[in-house]
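Translate sequence into structure tokens.
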Amino acid sequence: DPNDEQYWVKPILCEETRARLEHFRKLGWLSPNYKPKTLMGIAVVERYWRRYCAHLNEDYMTFLLSEDQAIYMNFFDWMYKTSKEKTSTGEGSASVRGVATNPGPSNTNTAKGGTRKRKQDESFKSDLPQPISFDDLPHTVCYRDVELFYLKNTGGRDILCAIIEFRNLKGRPEGADGTKFFMHGDYQLVYCPITYIVSLAFRDEAFENDALTPESIWRLKVPKRNRALPLRWKEVVDRPLLRRFVHAGFEDKLGHYNFRRWTANEANLHFTDQERNRVLGQSGSRIFERHYQKDFIPRDLQQVVLLRPSQEGLVQRAAGMLRKRDPLAPSDLNDDQIQTIRRHPRILELRWEKREFKEEMRSLAGTIQNAFPELYQRHNEVSKKLTKLRKVLRDDTRQKARKDYFLMAPVLEVDRQIQQLLGKPEAGDPNNTDDEDDIRSVVHASHQDE
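Result follows.
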């Protein structure tokens, strides 16, 4: 009925899934107009089928038109196994469980006692978009997702701004369009995303203008005939922008979820519920209320209860992450820690085993490349174990060193200031950053004593 609401045209599906399902609907393989919940469930199965074909290196349409029952049963087993391996019950998990536990087709054209394969016309050429391998899609913000430009400002100098598109949003299907956010410069450089993007762009040599320098970029102006002046990127459009926060000196390990919770709580204060859910990519308020609200109450209760003067500034500084930041915190391993890892008994054992395999391959085949496959495979397995163990020991040592530093550094600082108050000549200046080696040496010594 043309008067019925057509859910196919609503933006609840990614472009490729919508095109494929529309194609199947025109062929009569699907109902003319499913309801949104049913349509989203079918879309989930379609995306799993797309991934399954890519996993087996099979053609999407040929594999689908074969109508081999064994293929479908293997697909449902793989889909159910893949969905169970997910750590969260995201979009479509209930639909996957329902389809996987009842794999029978809802509308079949096969006769009893056998299968009837649909024949594909040789002249048929599908105009559907080609799927993109999931391994080829970066899982973070890249230069292609950032539109950097100067915006004309009638009240003063032109402002360098950016529009950033976040594609890897929670609850959004693969291939769906992302959400774009407008960013502008901030007088506090630690919170300025424009300075961050510009500095990384110069480091990566990403600007199309080779003559552009960190000094001249801030002097550009928008021509009178235009309202904006875009800055173009080179071919490094797929290079990720986000960097690690190990060298920032924070006590707690920072991840994307820290900033996501921060953004969610601030958006909750200033945006409507619908705008906040759009920013977070959530379908309702229940998830935010259960998992995103802060356990710290950033309000001055003494002002309300005891009628004392407001200290909102102190409250905000107490709630900030900079309260637990120490620029002197170790971010890399020192030489002694590296040597300790190299002398680890298990490391020495694996190195000796790897050396034995290498000598045996050279004695039997002359070179490692010409060695027997079984022997070469065992050599590679030992090499992988050695690499993995080194990484585990490095990470554990680095985490323990940082934990010991943040535990002992305040104690040493208090002792030093006490000595200074008592007039001891050996007490140093608590504001002197040259005592960095002294603090680290004491913390490292306490770590070695353990």
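Note: The longest strand covers residues 159-166.
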